[in-house]
Amino acid sequence: MTDPVAQRIVFVLRRSQLAALALVAQGKSNKDIADRINRSPGTVRNNMLGIYDETGMGSRLELAMFVHAHPQLRDAANAALVEINDTHRA
Questions:
Q1: For residue 21, what are the domain limits?
Q2: pLDDT tens per residue, the chain (90 residues)?
Q3: Total domain count for the chain?
């Protein structure tokens, strides 16, 4: 079954934003996210602002709950995180 809300978010967010979203859902801080996806904390902050803008959500908790409630979004975010981690290991 397709979740149109999650599908739209997956479509509009960049890969690094999806990876950041996966880590937000794990309760990670911006610094932790920056370290994990090899971006600067400022880039992560900007990614987070873009995520808030695209999703219409205003807090990390709200984002985390949304990701956990939408398996299609959670799977896409986790896949983006794996892809970014694999890219940095190569």
A1: 4-89
A2: 578 988 999 999 999 999 999 999 999 999 999 999 999 999 999 999 999 999 999 999 999 999 999 999 999 999 999 999 888 765
A3: 1
